[in-house]
């Protein structure tokens, strides 16, 4: 298991190096500290959500509702920031996301429904609630103190990057060093055998959705602190970017195998390509095409790798 | 200890319209090997899944060590000292040998929420478990998915016998094994019996059953239709009971 994951992570690192080399050759400022930090900050939100998504995908599930969780949590936190205060709002954002994740996981577990279908439904429900909550209006002018907590810096390192590193370490420990991690992989590999082995399969699945929701909640407060505003459409389409990062990072959509480091690198790869193309003034529509091709390439590489592995 | 480690009283199991168990009453004497034989679809696996917590009987009662038991989950079954080697083995392909042996019994260190796996202790424990069943060839860090049928079987069996079970259930343990590996399993079952552990053995192999079992139950179409002591029956009689040929002949 580690050898495959590490080879795959190596592949993403090589892709990152090539990407950096090309963009630096074309735009020398690409490799400046300022630009690197900016890319890290921009990728942090997607990467944090993608880490939670990785834990769901390793169980063989998927969470299509993360973008809508971002929308709903964003407007609720923004609207109540003044009454709640900065730190309670951040905590509330995480908890609210976790509750929405719990709803996803429980619906899927209790009714034995595919998480794809359940979260397709809650994608609509949560987004609708976000619009209802603000009557469709954006919320502006968030408190600067709140914004500084999440979007300030530690020394020269922006807080979102510090936060991303912390979340990565925690998710790594969960997946690779904890009992829950072993059970997440077991459930994703063979739910029936996991049940027979005494694993509380439904509880494990729900746990993954709760973590994914909580991290989407954290990403929401990060997002509104960066922008200084919240809109009910915030986070629209995030689910696809996030899933792309996970897949590019080498995690199998079939479940059972995942790489935490790969997911972060996948998010960074997609983020740096986006930034580089923007610096080059490439048409944004063309950027979409390139992102799509990279996903396709990653999937083909995975299949080639698993074929050679099977032959061995 | 009760005379019967496990007793089923009038157990019925429906899967929707399928009547898989039709009033099964069966005693499993403590410290002996009880075999269950029967044609495909007779209900053998369904019966033992009622003991291992996969299915709950629709009606009827199960006594474990003389006490009424409600076996609502695999964990509940384990808590009653029952371990099962399933027909499909129920090992996890993407996990290694050690992780499979310790699945849902992981050793951890630290205090919540920082409780991480104690790999060192589990490695030592897993090594000892394998040694106890006389297996020194399996590598603890090898993924189970890449192993041979016999090796996977060894992992599944090791996991079942290593945790001090009072009852071990084997669902067709040798069906997919070669002669040497089968003999290994037979030796292991005999040694469990010597240790006073109760064994339930499901098998299609009469030779195996006659050689290992003290008591043989015959199942047909969801019913336990006959009980024989192995010392007082013959393969021929078992075939007759199994197929119902006696009824047809008379
Ligand atoms: N989960 C289930 N849902 C519906 N029907 C089931 C289920 N499990 C078993 N059955 C049915 O119950 C009956 C008994 O099956 P069971 O697996 O217990 O037989 P068996 O004696 O173990 O056979 P084999 O020797 O082939 O393993 C069969 O008719 C089977 O189709
Ligand atoms: Mg069977």
Provide an overview of this structure.
The complex is a heterodimer of chains A (312) and B (250). Chain A is 78% helix and 1% strand. The mean pLDDT of chain A is 93. By secondary structure, chain A is mostly helical. A two-stranded antiparallel sheet of chain A has the order 1-2. Chain A has a single domain (2-305), classed as ABC transporter involved in vitamin B12 uptake, BtuC, CATH 1.10.3470. Chain A has helices at 2-26, 33-57, 66-84, 86-110, 115-134, 144-151, 159-177, 179-189, 191-196, 201-227, 238-248, 260-279, 284-311, and strands at 153-154, 157-158. Chain A is built from 13 helices and two strands; from the N terminus they run H-H-H-H-H-H-E-E-H-H-H-H-H-H-H. The longest helix of chain A has 28 residues, at 284-311. The two termini of chain A are 14 Å apart. Chain B has 250 residues and is an alpha/beta fold. Chain B has a domain at 4-90 and 164-242: P-loop containing nucleotide triphosphate hydrolases (Rossmann fold). Helix content of chain B is 33%, strand content 28%. Chain B has nine helices and twelve strands. Chain B has a six-stranded mixed sheet, sandwiched between helices. In chain B, strand 4 (59-64) and strand 5 form a beta hairpin. The longest helix of chain B has 16 residues, at 179-194. The radius of gyration of chain B is 19 Å and the shape is globular. Chain B starts with a strand and ends with a helix. The mean pLDDT of chain B is 92. Chain A binds chain B through residues 1, 173, 177-179, 182-183, 185-186, 188-190, 192-200, 256-257, and chain B through 52, 54, 73-75, 78, 84, 86, 88-96, 99, 103-106, 108, 115-117, 143, 159.
């Amino acid at each position: 298991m580690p050898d495959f994951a590490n080879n795959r992570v190596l592949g993403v690192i090589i892709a990152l190096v090539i990407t950096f080399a090309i963009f630096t050759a074309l735009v020398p400022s690409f490799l400046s500290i300022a630009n690197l930090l900016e890319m890290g900050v921009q990728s942090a939100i997607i990467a944090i959500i993608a880490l939670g998504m990785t834990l769901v995908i390793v169980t063989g599930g998927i969470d299509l509702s993360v973008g809508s969780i971002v929308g709903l949590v964003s407007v609720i936190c923004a609207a109540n920031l003044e009454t709640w205060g900065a730190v309670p709002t951040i905590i509330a954002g995480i908890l609210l996301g976790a509750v929405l994740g719990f709803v996803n996981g429980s619906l899927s577990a209790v009714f034995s429904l595919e998480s794809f279908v359940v979260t397709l439904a809650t994608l609509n429900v949560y987004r609708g609630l976000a619009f209802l909550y603000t009557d469709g209006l954006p919320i502006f002018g968030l408190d600067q103190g709140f914004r500084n907590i999440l979007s300030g810096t530690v020394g020269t390192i922006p807080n979102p990057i510090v936060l991303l590193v912390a979340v990565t370490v925690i998710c790594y420990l969960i997946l690779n060093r904890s009992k829950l991690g072993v059970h997440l992989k077991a459930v994703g590999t063979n739910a029936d055998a996991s049940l027979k082995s005494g694993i509380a399969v439904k509880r494990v699945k729900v746990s993954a959705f709760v973590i994914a929701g909580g991290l989407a909640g954290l990403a929401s407060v990060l997002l509104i602190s960066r922008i200084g505003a919240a809109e009910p459409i915030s986070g629209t389409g995030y689910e696809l970017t996030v899933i792309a990062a996970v897949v590019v990072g080498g995690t199998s959509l079939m479940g059972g195998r995942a790489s935490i480091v790969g997911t972060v690198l996948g998010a960074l790869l997609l983020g740096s390509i986006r930034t580089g193309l923007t610096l080059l003034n490439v048409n944004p529509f063309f950027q979409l095409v390139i992102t799509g091709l990279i996903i396709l390439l990653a999937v083909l590489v995975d299949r080639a790798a698993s074929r050679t592995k099977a032959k061995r | 200890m009760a005379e019967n480690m496990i007793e089923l009283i009038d157990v019925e199991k429906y899967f929707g319209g399928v009547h898989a168990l039709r009033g099964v009453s069966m005693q499993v004497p403590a410290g002996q090997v009880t075999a269950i034989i029967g044609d495909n679809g007779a209900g053998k696996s369904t019966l033992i899944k009622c003991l291992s917590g996969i299915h709950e009987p629709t009606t009827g009662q199960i006594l474990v060590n003389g006490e009424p038991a409600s076996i609502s989950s695999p964990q509940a079954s384990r808590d009653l000292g029952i371990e099962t080697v399933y027909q499909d083995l129920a090992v996890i392909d993407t996990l290694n040998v050690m992780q499979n042996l310790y699945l849902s019994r992981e050793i951890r260190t630290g205090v919540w929420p920082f409780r991480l796996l104690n790999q060192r202790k589990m490695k030592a424990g897993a090594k000892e478990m394998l040694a106890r069943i006389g297996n020194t060839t399996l590598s603890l860090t090898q993924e189970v998915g890449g192993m041979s049928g016999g090796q996977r079987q060894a992992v599944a069996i090791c996991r079942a016998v290593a945790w001090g079970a009072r009852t071990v259930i084997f669902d067709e343990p040798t069906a997919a094994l070669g002669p040497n590996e089968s003999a290994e399993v037979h030796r292991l079952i005999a040694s469990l019996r010597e240790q006073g552990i109760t064994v339930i053995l499901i098998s299609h192999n009469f030779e195996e059953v006659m050689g290992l079992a003290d008591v043989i139950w015959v199942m047909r179409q969801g019913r336990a239709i006959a009980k024989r002591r192995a010392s007082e029956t013959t393969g021929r009689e078992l075939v007759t009971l199994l197929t119902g040929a006696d009824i047809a002949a008379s």
